[in-house]
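Example (one chain per record):
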Amino acid sequence: MKGVVIENSLSDTSILKKLDISNSWVDGSWKLHEVIVSKEQAIGLANYLADGPWYFHFWEQGSDDVLVVFKNKIFEIKFSDKKTWKDALEYGKSIGIPSEQLDFPID
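Predicted structure:
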């Protein structure tokens, strides 16, 4: 699965050494890493999220399936079916993530 990990969101950055990082860049104060991970690794990254309004999302290229990973909740959504986003959006907003950041882009 492909996704972007914001280094600032991690409680322990040593996990980055175990991920397949294909690209890294800085956007403002955030350091971002494009990664390729297994579904199990993606789910396990929840254990490394710092407290606060953070999440990751991962997708399989060529697929409509998206995995949204919060620290305490994981959602499986269909990118093309916004009805499947409802619970993930509500949960993200409930922990303080702005609506505009809950867009789950894929390529």
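Caption: Residues 2-97 form one domain.
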